[in-house]
Structure formats: C-alpha cells, structure tokens
Design brief:
The complex is a heterodimer of chains A (111) and B (115). Chain A is an all-beta fold and 111 residues long. Chain A contains no helices and eleven strands. In chain A, strands 2, 4, 5, 9, 10 and 11 form a six-stranded mixed beta sheet that branches. In chain A, strands 1-3-8-7-6 form a five-stranded antiparallel beta sheet, with no helix packed on it. The relative contact order of chain A is 0.35. With 115 residues, chain B is an all-beta fold. In chain B, the strands form two sheets. In chain B, strands 2, 4, 5, 6, 9, 10 and 11 form a seven-stranded mixed beta sheet that branches. A four-stranded antiparallel beta sheet of chain B has the order 1-3-8-7, with no helix packed on it. In chain B, strand 4 and strand 5 form a beta hairpin. Chain B is globular. Classes of the chains: A mainly beta (111), B mainly beta (115). At the A-B interface, strand 5, strand 9 and strand 10 of A face strand 5 and strand 10 of B.
Chain lengths: 111, 115
Amino acid sequence: QKEVEQNSGPLSVPEGAIASLNCTYSDRVSQSFFWYRQYSGKSPELIMSIYSNGDKEDGRFTAQLNKASQYVSLLIRDSQPSDSATYLCAVEIQGAQKLVFGQGTRLTINP
Amino acid sequence: NAGVMQNPRHLVRRRGQEARLRCSPVKGHSHVYWYRQLPEEGLKFMVYLQKENIIDESGMPKERFSAEFPKEGPSILRIQQVVRGDSAAYFCASSEGMAGNQPQHFGDGTRLSIL
C-alpha cells in the first residue's frame, strides 16, 4: 500500500460546480496534512494546511480531515477554469521529518 | 522576490557530465528539501538538509547523487556522471521549521535534460 494515495483522474467538473478531491494515507500517527496546486510545468503552490479533525475553510477551498478513517479531502466551491491543475496531497510522516506526496489528481474545470 | 530561488531553470547535459543544481531558500528558512518529479508523476522526496547537516537522505540514490547546504550560500544538489534516467524536474522547498510543523514553499524547479 502506498503511503499516500490519490485518484490520478482526470477529474472533470463543470464550471460553477463543487470539485471534490480525496486522499488517503497509511501512517496512523500523521499529524499534518497539506494540499498543493500545480499548474502544468510550474512549481507546487501551497493552498491549504490542516492539522486537526474537521473542516477548515479558506475562501472557495475547504479541507476536511478524518484521522480515524485516514483520509483528507479538498473541496473547491464555485469551480473556475483557472482551478484546472493537478492537486497534490502531502502528509507528514511522523518522526521522519519529511512530507510524502500522493501522485496528484488532475482536475479540469469545463466552461 | 523573497521566495525560494532555484537556478538554472533549465539545464542540458550530455551523458557522463555533471549536473549542479542550486537552491536559495526563503530568507530566514533553515530547512531545505529536494524532490524529483518525473512527467505525470508526483513529487519524490530525495533529501532533507539543515545548515551544514544532512538530516535525511533516504530518498537519494546511493551513487552519483550528493547534496549540501553550507553555512554560507545556496544548497547544492550534485549529480555526477548523469544518465538519461536522471532527466526530470528537480524542485527545492524550504521551511522555517521541521516538515510537518511548518509548510514547505517550493521554488520554480530545474528541468534537467540529458542528451
């Protein structure tokens, strides 16, 4: 089992709809979780971090964390074509002082 | 621009040559990470350094690859005797504290092409 798993997609969502991205992880004691957005040919850009169970909202983005089920998700409301990118989930590996990234989910917002 | 600075942005080398990639972290950040990304794949951790120390190099190939983060100057990722399989995007990230406690901020990467 991979340490961090994401559905590679592609995920297509109509403009204005909610895009839902999911990530599962294997390390039960992980405490820190991050979502990065990466446009083609560009560097990853941090968009959300979450450390405790529940929801965290920032503008159109909501991160959801469920440590018991070992999953973290990202919701994008009112999706825009500019949201089309690859979204990377990253999980801290407890005690290893490093992040492990999922393979990314490619999201396409259709006008 | 106070972000992570990487250079060169693009680097072309012939097989057997050396590649040297540089990374200047965000001012005030003392933690540096190097990642490799192949096309259509996620980021693979290579090495984590603090000033003058390698903390974790578990993701770095045992041969031909080395990294340093000297007291003064940028962090350097060095690849000796490059092979075609080394072609990838190499990203550097920095953080103020340890991974997990502080988010990592990425540079624009170096695209390495091996002829």
